[in-house]
Amino acid sequence: MADKPSNPLIPIGIVVSLPVLACLLIMLTDDGIERSLLWAAVKVGLLLIVIGGALSFGVSRLAERKSL
């Protein structure tokens, strides 16, 4: 049985997401944090992740095109 190469982004994503999820859980359970600010921060974070992913995808396509 041949070993399938694994995607290195999966373990990195898990390591990065665990502390973020822990902080989010703490912020959701803390009474002193205003909910509207929390959800605004979550929306901005998701937007930045999408923009970063799109930029990364675009740059990888440009690099692939230049190497041909």
List the uncertain runs.
Answer: none
Number of strands: 0
Mean pLDDT reading? 85
Radius of gyration: 18 Å
- What class would the helix/strand composition place it in? mainly alpha
Report the sheet with the most strands, covering strand number, pairing sense and barrel closure. none
Secondary-structure topology with pairs:
Elements: H1 9-29, H2 35-67
Keywords: Membrane, Transmembrane, Transmembrane helix
Transmembrane segments: 9-28, 40-59
What would your notes on this structure say?
- The chain has 68 residues and is mainly α.
- It has one domain (8-67).
- It is 79% helix and 0% strand.
- It has two helices and no strands.
- The protein is elongated, with a radius of gyration of 18 Å.
- The chain crosses the membrane at residues 9-28, 40-59.
What are the key terms here?
single chain, 68 residues, mainly alpha, 2 helices, 0% strand
In short:
This protein has helices at 9-29, 35-67. The chain has 68 residues and is mostly helical.
